[in-house]
């Protein structure tokens, strides 16, 4: 999340990147010391008293995020915050997420439940050429024709190649790997 800097008169803005998560007290203290300001000078620049700056830096009070950004800006720095996922969903993962309800509902109508994704999509290693591997539990009355219907409907809904694998058909040598990486939809 990037927020607009506070509106304060400044002649220059210094940028300092905090690489680790740290406390508001530590951020404020580092910004003030790097700027070469006393608590009183920072307080005057930001429109708060020296005692408030002291309480923030000692961790006795916790400033609101907007207040912390204003105080850091008054010391000549800009506080940027960003929270990003270490993994971005692949196009196939996004496709599954956006069609999840329709896909799971239709597969249940056709006799499959406990729908899980496994393989390259589950591991986040899929490419545009990858298919989507779905592991399912089948009702006992679902035969080869029913399995073909599940396959066709999955591909119709998702618009990409899909493999449907009944969980009870897994060979023992690969079952543990597949079951370990399988993720429920």
From TrEMBL:
<dbReference type="InterPro" id="IPR052038">
    <property type="entry name" value="Type-VII_TA_antitoxin"/>
</dbReference>
<keyword id="KW-0479">Metal-binding</keyword>
<dbReference type="GO" id="GO:0016779">
    <property type="term" value="F:nucleotidyltransferase activity"/>
</dbReference>
<dbReference type="GO" id="GO:0046872">
    <property type="term" value="F:metal ion binding"/>
</dbReference>
<keyword id="KW-1277">Toxin-antitoxin system</keyword>
<dbReference type="InterPro" id="IPR002934">
    <property type="entry name" value="Polymerase_NTP_transf_dom"/>
</dbReference>
<dbReference type="GO" id="GO:0005524">
    <property type="term" value="F:ATP binding"/>
</dbReference>
<keyword id="KW-0808">Transferase</keyword>
<dbReference type="GO" id="GO:0003677">
    <property type="term" value="F:DNA binding"/>
</dbReference>
<comment type="similarity">
    <text>Belongs to the MntA antitoxin family.</text>
</comment>
<keyword id="KW-0547">Nucleotide-binding</keyword>
<dbReference type="InterPro" id="IPR010982">
    <property type="entry name" value="Lambda_DNA-bd_dom_sf"/>
</dbReference>
<keyword id="KW-0067">ATP-binding</keyword>
<protein>
    <submittedName>
        <fullName>Helix-turn-helix domain-containing protein</fullName>
    </submittedName>
</protein>
<dbReference type="InterPro" id="IPR043519">
    <property type="entry name" value="NT_sf"/>
</dbReference>
<keyword id="KW-0460">Magnesium</keyword>
<dbReference type="Pfam" id="PF01381">
    <property type="entry name" value="HTH_3"/>
</dbReference>
<feature type="domain" description="HTH cro/C1-type">
    <location>
        <begin position="28"/>
        <end position="82"/>
    </location>
</feature>
<dbReference type="InterPro" id="IPR001387">
    <property type="entry name" value="Cro/C1-type_HTH"/>
</dbReference>
<keyword id="KW-0548">Nucleotidyltransferase</keyword>
<dbReference type="Pfam" id="PF01909">
    <property type="entry name" value="NTP_transf_2"/>
</dbReference>
